[in-house]
């Protein structure tokens, strides 16, 4: 389906019974809603499953120069209000996880519960003196991947290359977490990556690469809605969520939990070794929060 956020047209994939409780799935930067296709069968019997393409991603409109947190958050609010039709469960990876976190700080009335998969939890700049710190992406191996995507995605999009051929190339490419994508990721995750590279506006990365991306979160504001933060293993070179910050938010938010998945890199739900553990943690949490009272 198509919805509007002001002058921007956004794409939302819609599966399941329209009368079922909605769940909104939010992707990471440069990705798109198709990254969640693998989990739809696990959710669709109980939920109406909505997968948003943020501005500049997938089949949504491009908005050069407007790729900042407030825009992404407003896209998610538009999806909740127009597609979900009211409060819903929100699950997001990376950029989508930070957006989910911003929603539970600023728009908690729209969020039944939130799952945040390896989200950037800190501020865009330096850590606050005396407070919980976050190095953001400084020294993170994702930065080199982002530079490569920024350079190569526009060329790929005009080349006429197919998703299938690009998937084969990506399978042999090195992953930011170590090894090749083919060695570490599920084939559907590689295919989703290929599809996203052929549709994304590569300039979504400019605020990240220039260091001008603004903060999603206020470190002193609790998460009001029940929330689960799933952190990648901090020893992995591409891990984003700082477990110390996750613990901080859990300590000031009475309904927030966090878990660190040992050995998991940033692409948790696509990794061969961590998808099932993420599924168990995320769906177990959602089941507990949304279970009908006995």
Annotate the secondary structure layout.
Layout (H helix, E strand, L loop, with lengths): L1 E4 L2 E8 L6 E5 L13 H4 L4 E5 L16 H16 L3 E6 L1 H12 L4 E7 L24 H18 L3 H9 L9 H4 L2 H11 L8 H5 L16 E5 L11 H10 L3 E5 L14 H16 L4
Parallel strand pairs: 3-4, 3-5, 5-6, 6-7, 7-8
Antiparallel strand pairs: 1-2, 2-4
Helix pairs in contact: 2-3, 5-7
Q: What number of structural domains do the residues give?
A: 1
How many angstroms does the end-to-end distance come to?
36 Å
Shape, principal axes of CA atoms: globular
The stretches of 5 or more residues where confidence is low (pLDDT under 50) are: 123-135
Structural class: alpha/beta
Largest pleated sheet: 8 strands, mixed
How many individual helices?
Answer: 10
Average pLDDT reading: 93
Structural write-up:
This protein is α/β, with parallel strands linked by helices. It has a single domain (2-290), classed as Rossmann fold, CATH 3.40.50.1820. Helix content is 36%, strand content 15%. The chain is built from 10 helices and 8 strands. The protein has helices at residues 40-43, 69-84, 95-106, 142-159, 163-171, 181-184, 187-197, 206-210, 243-252, 275-290; strands at residues 2-5, 8-15, 22-26, 48-52, 88-93, 111-117, 227-231, 256-260. The protein has an 8-stranded mixed β-sheet with strand order 1-2-4-3-5-6-7-8, with helices on both faces. A hairpin with a 2-residue loop joins strand 1 and strand 2 (8-15). The longest helix has 18 residues, at 142-159. The radius of gyration is 18 Å and the shape is globular. Mean pLDDT is 93; it is low at 123-135.
């Amino acid at each position: 389906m198509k919805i509007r956020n002001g002058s921007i047209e956004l794409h939302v994939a819609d599966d399941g019974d329209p009368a079922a409780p909605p769940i909104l799935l939010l992707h990471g930067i440069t990705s798109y809603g198709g990254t969640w296709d693998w989990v739809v069968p696990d959710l669709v019997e109980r939920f109406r499953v909505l997968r948003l393409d943020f501005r500049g991603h997938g089949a949504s409109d491009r908005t050069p120069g407007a790729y900042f947190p407030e825009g992404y958050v407003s896209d998610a609010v538009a999806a909740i209000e127009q597609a979900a039709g009211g409060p819903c469960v929100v699950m997001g990876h990376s950029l989508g996880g930070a957006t989910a976190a911003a929603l539970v700080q600023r728009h908690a009335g729209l969020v039944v519960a939130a799952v945040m998969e390896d989200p950037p939890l800190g501020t865009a700049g330096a850590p606050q003196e005396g407070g919980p710190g976050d190095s953001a992406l400084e020294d993170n191996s994702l930065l080199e991947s982002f530079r490569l995507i920024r350079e190569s995605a526009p060329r790929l999009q005009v080349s006429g290359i197919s998703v299938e051929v690009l998937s084969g190339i990506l399978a042999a490419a090195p992953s930011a977490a170590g090894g090749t994508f083919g060695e570490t990721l599920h084939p559907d995750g590689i295919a989703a990556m290929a599809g996203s590279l052929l549709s994304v506006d590569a300039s979504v990365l400019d605020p990240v690469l220039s260091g001008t991306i603004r903060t999603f979160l206020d470190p002193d504001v609790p998460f009001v809605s029940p929330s689960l933060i799933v952190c990648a293993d901090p020893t992995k070179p591409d891990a984003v969520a700082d477990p110390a910050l996750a613990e901080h938010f859990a300590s000031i938010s009475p309904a927030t939990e966090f878990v660190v998945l040992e050995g998991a890199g940033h692409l948790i739900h696509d990794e061969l070794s961590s998808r099932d553990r993420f599924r168990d943690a995320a769906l177990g949490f959602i089941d507990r929060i949304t279970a009908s009272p006995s």
